[in-house]
Amino acid sequence: MPYKIEYKSSVVRDIKKLDKSVAKHILQQLETSLSKNPNCGLPLKGQFKGLFKYRIGDHRIIYTKIKEGVLILRIGHRSKVYK
Questions:
Q1: HEC string of the chain?
Q2: 56 phi, psi to nearest 5 deg
């Protein structure tokens, strides 16, 4: 059973900042990986406790699990996504 992937409205701005080919690759990976297994990401610690990160190359996807599936909170380069 595939899980539903929802995106927070701020994710649209994050995607627009990326190169089109990179953005397309990230979205395809999200739809295939997280929709099958929302537990594939690693849990975060500290102030981000309760959230998960998923790595695609040099980019990180910050998400949380919800009843229906997954809510994507941020997408960004690994050096800037946690700020």
A1: CCCEEEECCHHHHHHHCCCHHHHHHHHHHHHHHHHHCCCCCEECCHHHCCCEEEEECCEEEEEEECCCEEEEEEEEECCCCCC
A2: -135, 100
Say which residue the tokens 């919800």 belong to. 66
Mean of all residue pLDDT scores within the chain: 92
What's the pLDDT band for 82 if we cut at 50, 70, 90?
confident
Domain architecture of the chain: domains with CATH: 4-77 (3.30.2310.20)
Determine how many CB atoms are found less than 10 A away from the CB of residue 33: 16
